[in-house]
Amino acid sequence: LKLAPSERVLINGAVIENGDRRAKIAIRTPNANILRLRDAIHPEEANTPVSRVCYICQLILTGETDVETAHQQLLIGIEQLSQVFYDRDSRTILTRATESVLSKNYYHTLKHLRELLPREARLFAAKQI
Predict the structure, then answer these.
(1) d(Cα 95, Cα 85) in Å, to the nearest integer?
(2) Could you tell me which residues are beta bridge partners of residue 35?
(3) What predicted TM-score, i.e. pTM, was given to this entire model?
(4) pLDDT, tens only, 1-13
């Protein structure tokens, strides 16, 4: 995990803030829940289909939800997104996100799903024209 100066990250429920210099931290605990706070989605920002699925994933990483229930919600949400994002690149992203959910690697799930946010924004922008 590479951290910028003063960057904050949530690791297994603990907020850690980096010092004045760049740092590289090796997380040795398997399946540790990690969330960069700069990437965090606030509840009021989870107002689009992709951001809502990202938010579910984030809740798992922060320990704020039942993992089994949220795991199922993630799979359902990704399936619903696949009904809209059917181009090759988006399908690849959704496949990777699904594989990450199935392996219970929720950090990578969130990382993959966040790749869809700009695509979703473009779709909404095009719809308003």
Answers:
(1) 11
(2) 10
(3) 0.87
(4) 899 999 999 988 8
